[in-house]
Structures are given as structure tokens and as C-alpha cells.
UniProtKB/TrEMBL annotation:
Protein name: Response regulatory domain-containing protein
Keywords attached to this entry: Cytokinin signaling pathway, Phosphoprotein, Transcription, Transcription regulation, Two-component regulatory system
Coiled coil: none
Comp. bias (Low complexity): 158-167
4-aspartylphosphate modification, residue list: 76
InterPro entries, alphabetized: ARR-like (IPR045279), CheY-like_superfamily (IPR011006), Sig_transdc_resp-reg_receiver (IPR001789)
CDD domains in alphabetical order: REC_typeA_ARR (cd17581)
Family listed: Belongs to the ARR family. Type-A subfamily.
Lineage, broadest ranks: Eukaryota, Viridiplantae, Streptophyta, Embryophyta, Tracheophyta
Stretches for region Disordered: 146-202
UniProt function note: Functions as a response regulator involved in His-to-Asp phosphorelay signal transduction system. Phosphorylation of the Asp residue in the receiver domain activates the ability of the protein to promote the transcription of target genes. Type-A response regulators seem to act as negative regulators of the cytokinin signaling.
């Protein structure tokens, strides 16, 4: 009986202070086969990601160490307290989370706001109401992020293997030179000993 491997769905963290908007984005994401976690503020999003609100560089857990890894964050721009732009900056300032794609949503089409978010590192800017067709734009960003992550892991593994190989190579060389030195010393002794035992002619 053939076993069909099931692919783990991508996990999206959705952030919006509006309950109707939060329900809408959750439904659209689930319809598009994403796994979804929703929170109603930027500070709660940071808590979920393991970042302290006051210091993005202090991370209690890394993204890949979460119970369910976050593959993408989609957040509303206008929220009380911490805006979506503030949340974006916190994420991009974190060394362990900056590679997670971030999408900003807003009901206001303000070019300067859109450009500012994109310049800060946002991958997309959606105008509300978000539509089902927008969901198809998310997966390429997730795949790109995963490829970048895998590439970094491969480079780290190659670096570790290179260090290991250099250590392995250094030991045989030392051993070989030591053996050669002992061999030459033994040969010198063999040449000297017969000379001492030769009979002396008067």
C-alpha cells in the first residue's frame, strides 16, 4: 500500500486589531491552505515570535524553535499602540527573524506610506479589503525565504566540513614527517655502526 506524503502547510501569523478584518484574512488564508495564527496587536505578535517589545535584539526563542514555525507575517498598518510599520521594523531589526517575509495591509492607498514600508523591508503591500487573489502572492515570498534559509544552512555545513577536513589533514602530515625523521635517524645509525666495527690495519 503506497503511503502519500503530506506536505506541512505554510504557517502565517496574521495581525489586525479589527475583529472582522482578522476573521476575513483568517478565512482567506485557510481557504488557500495556509495554517493561520491570529493576534490583535503588534505587541502580541512580538510575544508570539519571542521578541521583547522594548528590544528587538533580545530574542528569547528563535523562529525555528517555536512550537509552530512562522513562515510569513501579514499585518495591518493602522493599529493602536504599535503600528504595522513599527512591527515591521522590530522584525527586521531581529537577527533571527529578519528573513521572515512581512506583508502590510491598509485601507488607505497612500504612496508615501507604501514606499516607506517597502523600503523598510516589507515584501508586499495589500490594499483592503484583501481578496482571495491576493493570497496567491504570498507563497512565492515564503519559498524565496526558505531557499535563502536552506542556502545559508548549506554554507554553514560546508564551512564546518572544511574545518573538519583541514584538521584531519594536519594530523597525518605531522605523523608522516615524524615517521620520516625517525627513519632517517635509524639509517644514519646503521651507517655509523659498521664503521666502528671495521678491523684496524696496522
Amino acid at each position: 500500500m503506497a503511503v502519500v506524503a503530506t506536505e506541512t502547510p505554510f504557517h502565517v501569523l496574521a495581525v489586525d486589531d479589527s475583529l472582522p478584518d482578522r476573521k476575513l484574512i483568517e478565512r482567506l488564508l485557510k481557504t488557500s491552505s495556509f495554517q493561520v495564527t491570529t493576534v490583535d496587536s503588534g505587541s502580541k505578535a512580538l510575544q508570539f515570535l519571542g521578541i521583547h517589545d522594548d528590544d528587538a535584539s533580545t530574542v528569547s526563542v528563535h523562529a525555528h524553535q517555536l512550537d509552530v514555525a512562522v513562515n510569513l507575517i501579514i499585518t495591518d498598518y493602522c493599529m493602536p499602540g504599535m503600528t504595522g510599520y513599527d512591527l515591521l521594523k522590530k522584525i527586521k531589526e531581529s537577527s533571527s527573524l529578519r528573513d521572515i517575509p512581512v506583508v502590510i495591509m491598509s485601507s488607505e492607498n497612500i504612496p508615501s506610506r507604501i514606499n516607506r514600508c517597502l523600503e523598510e523591508g516589507a515584501d508586499e503591500f495589500f490594499l483592503k479589503p484583501v481578496r482571495l487573489s491576493d493570497m496567491s502572492k504570498l507563497k512565492p515570498h515564503i519559498l524565496k525565504s526558505r531557499c535563502r534559509e536552506h542556502s545559508q544552512q548549506d554554507q554553514e555545513q560546508q564551512h564546518q566540513q572544511s574545518d573538519s577536513n583541514s584538521n584531519d589533514c594536519s594530523n597525518p602530515t605531522n605523523k608522516s614527517s615524524s615517521d620520516s625523521s625517525r627513519k632517517r635517524k635509524a639509517e644514519d645509525n646503521e651507517e655509523i655502526l659498521p664503521q666502528k666495527n671495521r678491523p684496524r690495519h696496522s
